[in-house]
């Protein structure tokens, strides 16, 4: 039987850093692939919020229905 390799602190730190790099790369990849959808969602939510704000000012009934 072979003896297990001894790991140094450098090996452990390098493994952690490489794992973090891989996770960040995957997150960035998903964001890049879905950038169009995310931008559309942000714009849509912004427009919906603007409509809500103007309707709340113009029609007090709406302000009472959706009061937070």
Radius of gyration: 25 Å
Secondary-structure element string: HHH
Head-to-tail CA distance between termini: 68 Å
Shape: elongated
The helix content, as a percent range, equals: over 70%
The largest sheet, given as strand count, sense and whether it forms a barrel, is:
none
Quickly count the helices.
3
* Domain count: 1
The fraction of residues assigned to DSSP E strands is under 5%
Which structural class should the secondary elements be placed in? mainly alpha
- Per DSSP E runs of 2 or more residues, the count of β-strands stands at 0
Mean pLDDT, all residues: 86
Regions with little confidence, pLDDT below 50 for 5+ residues:
none
Explain this structure to me?
The chain is an all-alpha fold and 68 residues long. The chain has one domain. Helices cover 81% and strands 0% of the residues. The chain has three helices and no strands. It has helices at 9-33, 35-58, 60-65. It is elongated, with a radius of gyration of 25 Å.
């Amino acid at each position: 039987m072979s003896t297990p390799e001894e790991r140094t602190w450098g090996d452990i730190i390098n493994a952690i850093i490489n794992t973090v790099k891989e996770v960040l790369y995957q997150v960035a990849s998903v964001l890049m692939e879905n950038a169009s959808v995310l931008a559309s969602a942000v714009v849509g939510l912004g427009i919906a919020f603007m409509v809500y704000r103007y309707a709340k000012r113009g029609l007090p009934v709406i302000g009472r229905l959706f009061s937070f």
